[in-house]
Amino acid sequence: RCNRDCIDGVPHRSGSWMMNLCGGPVCSNQDALSCAFKEVFDSSTCTNHLAATGIGLLLVLALALQLVIKIPNSGGSAQGLVAVGSPLQLAAVVFSGCLGLVYLGLGLSMLGSIFSQDAAAYLPHWWLVTLSQGFSLVLSSFAFSVRPRFLGASFVPLWSILVVVYAAFICCSSVVGIVADKAITIKACLDVLSLPAAFLFLLYGVRCTHDEDGYQATGNALYKPLNTEADGQIADSDTQVTSFAKAGFFSKMSFWWLNHLMKLGYEKPLEDKDMPLLQTTDRAHNQYLMFLEKLNSKQSHSHATPSILWTIVSCHKREIIVSGFFALLKVLTLSTGPLLLKAFINVSVGKGTFKYEGFVLAATMFVCKCCESLSQRQWFFRTRRLGLQVRSFLSAAIYKKQQKLSNSAKMKHSSGQIMNYVTVDAYRIGEFPYWFHQTWTTSVQLCIALAILYNAVGAAAVSSLAVIIITVIGNAPVAKLQHKFQSKLMEAQDVRLKAMSESLVHMKILKLYSWEGHFKKVIEGLREVEYKWLSAFLLRRAYNSFLFWSSPVLVSAATFLTCYLFKIPLDASNVFTTVATLRLVQDPVRTIPDVIAVLIQAKVGFTRISKFLDAPELNGQLRKKYRVGIDYPIVMNSCSFSWDENPSKPTLNNINLVVKAGEKVAICGEVGSGKSTLLAAVLGEVPKTEGT
């Protein structure tokens, strides 16, 4: 059969170069449309290689002309020509550069096979397309490491779009060739990887347009007059904000925004002035305002008192969901380890399903481990940040509430207790988001591990499930005791802190009457009570830890004993998979005691803070606001006041007081006559029962 470049079976001169290049006829006497489709979109054909080479050379020529023309006319220095300013740009440059070097190495090896007179030498179109793709990728990598302003703001995104189209053509052609030949080659893998590299170029091309706009704005600002001092202070405060506030997606995922601070810490010890400011959303004031807004909106929709817990959840539900997604991703990627290990063992004993299964498994394991590390870091960082936000606005809420407490509430919540709410309870609630996702990811991981065990050893997995259930049931009464002892411990700590704060405040009186020894014995007695509840709590926690730390050994022993009794066959694949799965279960099972302890402490702390925030407040409507122009700023007309809010037992009765503006008034009286109560009544801190 002869193609259209042949006449009467003799090759024509115009088709001789094609024969030499391709080593055979390009297309036979078949349907022209189907022939053209196959020749163009099959990566094993000469026509496809010629098309890819031609497109690649055109792109390289356009890029080279742009570099030659633009860079000399830009007037920039050689030092400022190349700059890698973002993790996205670094990933695109490094990934495409390495890919291009591999292409060049493969093309040179193909070319070397011709000179070595190898029988399996490649035809010219094979090494030609490989070298052209490698050269285009290396040149593209260099071009994208150049600052966008040297190439032009419009050229970079246009070039990145053309590169994506070119890479998509090569990738689709390679996929068609893999399906047709039912074989995977090194060049086909490189062709598939060229598409993600092109997408990285596209993402960077879209972002660099914004960078170019920012550069132009900065350049124009050089010709503006000097700003005022206030503007300079605002600019300084904006520059001192943490880089996390302006970090992009890739910077947040890779923690690239920390590089500047880590570099500074490497050069010199960090000081307070080196610490950047928090972004606006992380500051305690804004967090507290957001909490109040959610609380007020819930109160307007419902007459009942809204739950503070669900108000906190509604304030941060997005961050909870995102961190939960990363926690689930970490569990899923971690659970692929035993499955990949089993597949590796099957490949090693000759039970593989296809030719290059080992390479695919190695690449899959690498990707899974990268995803596991990435998701775990994001999970930990986001939950720690969420915990700090919750702790900061709870501390602010406690501080604001303490200023508005009524007298009856102050009798129930002393200064020592309020100090405990901030330093202990708010801290433990802030630690809880870090452990929150452990409460359900542990169950998910145990279920996945039991499914893998059932797949490996069959019915023997039932014994593992039974041991885990017995362990959890045996821990239930201990957890209840822990909750009880934690509540008693916090009460004893409140009493001790109250006594210590009162002793420190009135230390002059203690020294005057020589009561130091007596108060020391009282505080030591309170410490003994606190120590009793603390030791009881820690002993139950130690029992809890021993129970769960020994459970992996009991689970593995029960599994293999069941396999022996029921004569379940064990080979290398089953044994290694079982051991890896049990090793996978150890960490979540051993963290269960810590999760339970943190959950109990957070529950106790949240109950105490909720009671404090729901405590009665001073009635702000007891007094009218003073207005400018009135001669009497303070007026009391037939007023009665009672600390107990009981009209039948007034502390001050039938008080009439008028104070003029600018007038000095002295309130005199014997001890216990009500001078301080009168001043507190002026401030609105004593409930008014009668009068105006």
TrEMBL record:
It is found in: Membrane. CDD domains: ABC_6TM_ABCC_D1 (cd18579). GO terms for molecular function: ABC-type transporter activity; ATP binding; ATP hydrolysis activity. Residues 321-601 form the ABC transmembrane type-1 domain. The chain crosses the membrane at residues 50-69, 81-106, 126-146, 158-178, 446-473, 546-566. InterPro entries: ABC1_TM_dom, ABC1_TM_sf, ABC_transporter-like_ATP-bd, ABC_transporter_C-like, ABCC10-like_N, ABCC_6TM_D1, P-loop_NTPase. The keyword Transport applies. Keywords: ATP-binding, Membrane, Nucleotide-binding, Transmembrane, Transmembrane helix, Transport. GO terms for cellular component: membrane. It is a multi-pass membrane protein. PROSITE patterns: ABC_TM1F. PANTHER family: ABC TRANSMEMBRANE TYPE-1 DOMAIN-CONTAINING PROTEIN, ATP-BINDING CASSETTE SUB-FAMILY C. This is ABC transmembrane type-1 domain-containing protein.
